[in-house]
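Work through this:
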Amino acid sequence: MPDDSGRPAGLETVEDGYGTAPLDGNRSRRPPLRSQNRPGGLARNYSHNPFQHAQRYNGETMAQMISLARIESRRRGKIGIRDRICCYQWTWFTMTMATGGVANVLYSISNTYKLKWLEDIGVAFFLLNLVLFIMNCVLITMRFVMVPGSFMHSFLDDVESLFIPSVVVSIAIIMTNITQYGCPHTGPWLQKVMEVLFWVYLAISVIASTGMYLVLWSTQTFPIQTMTPSWVFPAYPLLLNATFATNLISTDRVGPGDPRSNRLAVATTALTTQGTGFLISFMICAAFIYRLMTQKLPRDTQRPGVFISIGPPAFTVAGLVLLGQQANDILPPDYPDKSQAVFVLELLSTLIGLWLWGLSVWFFVVSVGSLWKYTRNGHSMPFQMTWWSFVFPNTALVNATLALAKALGSNGLQIYGCVMAAALVLVWIIVFVMMLWSLWSRQLLWPKELDKEG
């Protein structure tokens, strides 16, 4: 008998909360795939040309591949640490996006009010994020080694592939934190290193974004009825360029004999890629609104992912407004009519920033409103890694609010941004504790019994 989702009984999809919902009648009823030779053989059978069989690898077949790779352990009735590591996915890098984003927010506030204790807390979040990022890299590498073929198949999975760029975003946030917390306390050598890394990251962000979308468009089919804001994720690497650039320019301390960094080139290229990322995200978010008008809100496990739509306009506001405020430092000293040009750039960046900030706040209100039903009895939202969406897009909104407060000289906006930052730290703590509890209670990183007969 089929279950409520339309899948045959005994077949269970690995849920990370970000995947697109299956369409009744549109997804083929495939029987469980079995390895013909040995555990993990499913991955090996198609490793020679995985793109030829791209349509086979949806959320179900990816879960089956992982389950088959650990079939011997399941037969013994023992599930150990190796089995749990095999369930690791790219979505775990959303945790490092959120943690690094909190460190970014705390730096912005501590730099404004010159609070040493708050800066120390920010450093603690930054160091914790480094540990979590290294842990993620090690564990997901172990999964790829223990389940041969799963690396390539992760690019072809309609659930997991969208979040591969979260690794690139995490790297961008880490480099931004290094610029914030490291450059002011070191010599010009670190500034020069981070400038070089900026150009490297800019190239990587363009390649990662365009490459990932090309892979998705070549191997996957995403009907509009199943649309979620996670479609924006491959564009997210582009959205961190302006934030990286503003911090690089603001920490550029030119002393006697120190070379001045090429601020104009950094700013213009950052604006170009930032604008590209925002426009791509804007078009995708427009498709999401169309989906909401025709298909209602996403299902419970996907509901936190609605917050992802806050990120693109918010990241753009934070980068654009701060670059506008740095126009006097960016433009060369011999620029014609420099004072007038600086005034125009500051005014223009603030006006555009207000528009996009309003859009980001609107998405925030909609996202919060979509959670209203969970305040009533009988409605619950099980923990998934989607819960980190409560944090990392909102770090961009807090930074955008603080940037506009600085540009407008508004104490009210400044206080509002600080209150949002405090609430965001509290949400981060709640999500982190819930994640640890879910790991302990075997709700996360626990093999699903997909092949009942295996």
